[in-house]
Specification:
Low-confidence stretches: none
Structural class: alpha/beta
Mean pLDDT: 96
Bound molecules: nicotinamide-adenine-dinucleotide
Helix content: 25-40%
Shape: globular
Oligomer: single chain
Strand order of the largest sheet: 3-4-5-6-7
Number of strands: 14
Largest sheet: 5 strands, mixed
Length: 408
């Protein structure tokens, strides 16, 4: 019942289905019972409208009553950057105790090709029931993009790959209720790889433009001007913007599921590794640029007051998982900077001992304002105008205060 599960639950409930909202996190279950959403894209109002159709529980037995079970657990990396299927294995074990003849089980979590067939099916088989025979099994990747409003769950085509043709038919029939377009692929593996291709495509293109941003910094060319100009080409170019690095649960993690799997097939996925390396370098590049700016003003980083605007990994959300903003806070604090932040979506950073403060409070007396994430509703123009130095990592203050902000 996280970023993926809760919107799905609400979408199905809105179409008149009774939904069991199962999660091992008691806090989430309690919040749902109180009618409180903890996902920005799901308004309390939307949850309240379907509250009587959603039964939130920490007990897996409730899943036995369902016609379909959608698995949306996290798929993180271990400390060694290998796939951590722990939550998925736990969820499948819990489900194997209650799975019923005739049920449909769909994995939505992003993972490497082969997971549904080689990991999920065998664990569910511990029930004595066989996937594709006694119950249906499919993979259908979630494509939610938190904070996005121009494409919705209904208008974003849903890719479905069944273990058998009949499994795919069942999954397709289910998703037709909440999604206008279903794209059938022949196997769960094709569906699993489709999701990874989408994420790797973004990761590689972001890395490309980030590498150019670092080069532009040395060559004293405005990368934003170049990206704007290239974007005028009506074909053959797709706009990607440079930034402080990639964050979120997906982009910095998912591609490595494929590179890990590829090693079993004697392949090194070089684009993935290279893109990861460049994107990971970006927070260091940004901090080096802060050091240079302060140096030019005759100030050391140590003791300088730095106001960070936005620490979430993207605008409009409160998710700080893998956020480059956290890395930047850590690096600047390690250099002895006096770091404060303003983020209307992230109230505190307990690991850093920081709380979000009002914009005017963080800007008061700041030596430098650093725009890390450009949240809607934050007055970046005023921020740039109100401090001696401003560094804009998102290109939102290009034209503010007579172009005072230095750009990434
Ligand atoms: N967040 C996104 O934008 C996004 C987009 C597309 C795909 N995905 C993929 O979807 C999956 C879920 O991502 P998310 O962002 O919703 O994660 P999340 O952490 O927000 O939610 C996952 C939920 O699963 C619960 N959980 C963990 N172990 C469990 C278990 N054994 N049984 C039941 N519940 C369990 C957690 O308590 C949590 O509430 C991941 O594979 C992710 O890569 C995420």
């Amino acid at each position: 019942m996280g970023y993926v599960g809760l919107p799905l639950a609400v979408a199905f409930a809105a179409e008149g289905h009774d939904v069991v909202a199962f999660d091992v996190d008691r806090c989430k279950v309690d919040a749902l019972r109180r009618g409180e959403s903890y996902v920005e894209d799901v308004a309390d109002r939307a949850l309240a409208a379907v509250a009587e159709r959603i039964e939130a529980t920490t007990r897996p037995d409730a899943l036995a009553r369902c016609e379909a079970v959608l698995i949306c657990v996290p798929t993180p990396l271990t400390a060694n950057r290998e796939p951590d299927l722990g939550p998925l294995v736990d969820a499948c074990r819990a489900l194997s105790g209650v799975v019923q003849v005739g049920q449909l089980v769909v994995l939505e979590s992003t993972t490497y090709p082969g997971t549904t067939r080689e990991r999920v099916a065998p664990i569910l088989a511990e029930s004595g029931l066989v996937a594709g025979v006694d119950f249906s099994l499919a993979f259908s990747p979630e494509r939610v993009d938190p904070g996005r409003t121009d494409h919705t769950m209904r208008t974003t085509p849903k890719v479905v790959g069944g273990l058998t043709e009949a499994c795919g038919d069942r999954a397709e029939a289910l998703y037709r209720d909440i999604c206008d377009t279903i794209v059938r692929v022949s196997t769960p593996e094709a569906a699993e790889l489709t999701k990874l291709l989408e994420n790797i495509f973004r990761s590689v293109n972001i890395a490309l433009v980030n590498e150019l941003a670092m080069l532009c910094d040395r060559m004293q060319i405005d990368i934003w001007e170049v990206v704007d100009a290239a974007s005028t080409k009506p074909y053959g170019f797709m706009r990607f913007e440079p930034g402080p690095g990639m964050g979120g649960h997906c982009m910095p993690v998912d591609p490595f599921y494929l590179s890990w799997r590829a090693r079993e097939f004697d392949m090194t996925t070089e684009f993935i590794e290279l893109a990861g390396k460049i994107n990971q370098q970006m927070p260091y590049h940004c901090v080096a640029k802060v050091e240079r700016l302060l140096n030019d003003a005759g100030k050391p980083v140590r003791g300088s007051k730095i106001a960070i605007l936005g620490v979430a990994y993207k605008p409009g959300v409160g998710d700080v998982r893998e956020s480059p903003g956290l890395k930047i806070v850590t690096l600047l604090a390690a250099l002895g900077a006096d770091v404060r932040y303003h983020d209307p979506f992230v109230s505190e950073l307990p690991a850093h001992g920081l709380r979000s403060e009002a914009l005017d409070v963080v800007l008061a007396g700041a030596d430098l304002a650093l725009i890390v994430t450009a949240h809607p509703g934050v007055d970046h123009d005023a921020a740039v105008a109100g401090v001696p130095l401003a560094l804009d990592l998102r290109g939102v203050a290009r034209h503010s205060a007579g172009g005072r902000a230095v750009l990434l």
